[in-house]
Amino acid sequence: MSRFLLCDRQTGWALALVLGYFLYLFLGAMVFQLLEKQAEAQSRNQFKLDKLKFLQNYTCLDGPALEQFVQIIMEAWEKGVNPKGNSTNPSNWDFSNALFFAGTVVTTIGYGNLSPSTLAGQAFCVFYALGGIPLNLAFLKQLGKGLNMYLVRLERCLQRPGHSMVVQALTVTFFLVAGTLLFLIFPPMIFSYVEGWSFGEGFYFAFISLSTIGFGDYVIGTDPNKHYISVYRSLAAIWIIFGLAWLGLVFNLGTELMEKINQLKWHKTSRMTVENSVTKLEDHLDRSRDQEVNSSSKIKIVLTVGSCLMAIWFHGSDSGLPARMEGLELGSSDSSEAQFDLSDLIGWFVELEVSLDPLSQAVPMTPPNSPPWSQAGGEEDVASEAVSLEAVLQRRGRPLKDPNVCGQKSSLPALELTHSPEGPRDVWRDP
Amino acid sequence: MPRCSCRSVAAPLLLALLYVSLLMAGAGVFWALESETEEERAQPISRDQWDQLLNRSGMEPPQLEAFIRDIIEAYKTGINLQQNATTLLGKWKFAGSFFFCVTVVTTIGYGNLSPSTTGGQIFCIFYALVGIPLNLILLNRIGQWMSNWVHRCSNVLGKKLSRPKTAKVLTSLCALGLGLLLFFFLPPLMFTSIEDWNYSEGIYYAFITLSTIGFGDYVIGMNPAQDYPPWYKNVVALWILFGMAWLALLINLCIGFLENCGDICQCCRTGAKKETEQDLSDASQDSNLQPVLKETTEKVEMFSSGDSMKPEIAD
């Protein structure tokens, strides 16, 4: 019974998602049509008028000849040759431009102002992207980790007892505001100054670049009439890389918030179902349990929801762009918790619980006997978190009947289980 | 901290070095491959045609330049100039707008269409801000569904063969092959028959699209001389959705592989792991903690089983 309910809910959510997605697309299509169609018609008429005027002025040119002329120019433009000016235009494929192109490939921006036209170039492009995109994502992830590390360090510097939540909220806001200024406000100013765009156009270019949409309607450093300083494009490339790492974090936050909102709903409505299945499993495995377990499971569910929400908050600033593709791993497909890195999430939760607990304020966040690589991030980080928790609990000498502490403690074996080849789900699969 | 500094510094540094060198290498190769042909292409257009045009039209060079600039501006705004005025392709009709929306939320961004009005640009920013996460969620779902399916297959096969490891490898390979066939080798056939491309161009288009690079040098349904069947764009949209999920899966595997390779400083790593294990075993041997550990293990098992939503687990 509960199985069908669970099934229904999941398919229902998936269906709603698909429906919402297509609805969203349709809505967007309508709005863009509304906004752009008039402008298109206007510029089309303008061009027609220009053409007629041109024909009137130069009577030696007839209609078909003009068509041919236009076609030649368009073909040239498509192939990346700038038909304007004299024939001594600088090449589109000199080294710095090729580097810029390679950057647009691996970041998947793909402006398209340059694209390989030879068969060899196209084939190489495919394999280059196949190697380069994962590398780029790994690099951005590392960068995101680095950015996050500074954030955490800042947070620890600022932390005073009793103000932790306020401080955390402040640091996140600071992170967002500083990032917006540094990546979305200042660069467009520079671009609009150098390229002669309006600020709005500069901002539009910045957003289209950093979201890796990359229409290519505005590309920096392509105006042949302008003289750019030599480091201009390199600086832009650095901006793009750091900006991508930053924007990845922001997008990540949005994605997970959306997922979590649904999950919260699920948790609320089907707590009964969960308990049913829990009791069923208990019978099935024939393990003795006392009454306290059931009541604490409720508390744990509530705790997990809370922890998940808090974990999103932190997780959003923890992993970079690659988290877009997290959760697609072959292994981590069972529960919806596997959508993000469970170990990260629990690690954050543990840390948060510890930092929120008034008793633990006296105890340092990283006990002296904890291993020194606790700032290195990744699995070791989580493991050390667990060890530090262990130490905290030991030092406190507190009885572990407290449901709060149970919630904390429960994450410790979970860490072991998720990292060991036999996860909890494997245990249940063949009882 | 000092013990592990080599790992925490060296791995990212190596990654950064690898990244930069990859960019450099790519730039070199593209430079070598493309610049020659570009020069070849540029020659006839810039010399012969230029002179010819100047002679034929009797225009002054500056006027001709101004005219060319106008044409390019018009072309950039998405107007098809090749046809005579009555049969111009309305790119911002509903179907075109829909396709544009798909390219925005998937971050493909071909750029053959892009908003030119300020209102359109502003809306595009907010639209993408909401649409990209939504699209990612959907892709996650599809990817999850796909990998679930593969998982199930490998389970069934593992039971039959009674060798789960070989079954897993076999199904993974099968999934890879099937995905390649379904998303990379069959769709280009359709493109070659409908568009005016050859097969290698079709594969190139497929890859550039699914990897969300989206140069926009090849875009489907944009040739005004061609008659497209009505189902064509919808099928392509579906292909994009599933293919992107599949490619994301593949790229994710590549990232996992890369990151595993990135942990080169094995000495520190194994040392750290050993110490962690030591600490954990110490903790578990502590008589005070023994019952607690046991109890919490039970609870976690129970909770995780209750929490996971897969039907086969509740079975």
From TrEMBL, chain A:
Signal peptide: none
First-listed, main subcellular location of the protein, grouped into a coarse class: membrane
Every Potassium channel domain range: 88-145, 172-259
Bilayer topology term: Multi-pass membrane protein
Compartment(s) of residence: Cell membrane; Endoplasmic reticulum membrane; Mitochondrion inner membrane
Keyword tags: Cell membrane, Disulfide bond, Endoplasmic reticulum, Ion channel, Ion transport, Membrane, Metal-binding, Mitochondrion, Mitochondrion inner membrane, Potassium, Potassium channel, Potassium transport, Transmembrane, Transmembrane helix, Transport
Alphabetized Pfam families for the sequence: Ion_trans_2
Species whose genome carries this gene: Geotrypetes seraphini
Membrane-spanning residues: 12-35, 120-140, 166-190, 202-220, 232-254
GO molecular function, one term: metal ion binding
InterPro entries: 2pore_dom_K_chnl (IPR003280), 2pore_dom_K_chnl_TASK (IPR003092), K_chnl_dom (IPR013099)
Any one GO CC term of the record: mitochondrial inner membrane
Chain intervals for the UniProt region annotation (Disordered): 365-385, 399-431
Family: Belongs to the two pore domain potassium channel (TC 1.A.1.8) family.
Protein name per Swiss-Prot or TrEMBL: 2P domain potassium channel Talk-1
UniProtKB/TrEMBL annotation, chain B:
Keyword annotations: Ion channel, Ion transport, Membrane, Potassium, Potassium channel, Potassium transport, Transmembrane, Transmembrane helix, Transport
Glycosylation sites: 84
Alphabetical GO biological process terms: stabilization of membrane potential
Localization terms from the record: Membrane
Domain Potassium channel: 89-147, 183-259
Membrane disposition: Multi-pass membrane protein
CC terms in the record's Gene Ontology section: plasma membrane
Transmembrane segments: 12-33, 94-113, 119-139, 169-191, 203-223, 235-258
Molecular function terms from GO: outward rectifier potassium channel activity; potassium ion leak channel activity
Record-stated family: Belongs to the two pore domain potassium channel (TC 1.A.1.8) family.
The protein's name in its UniProt record: Potassium channel subfamily K member
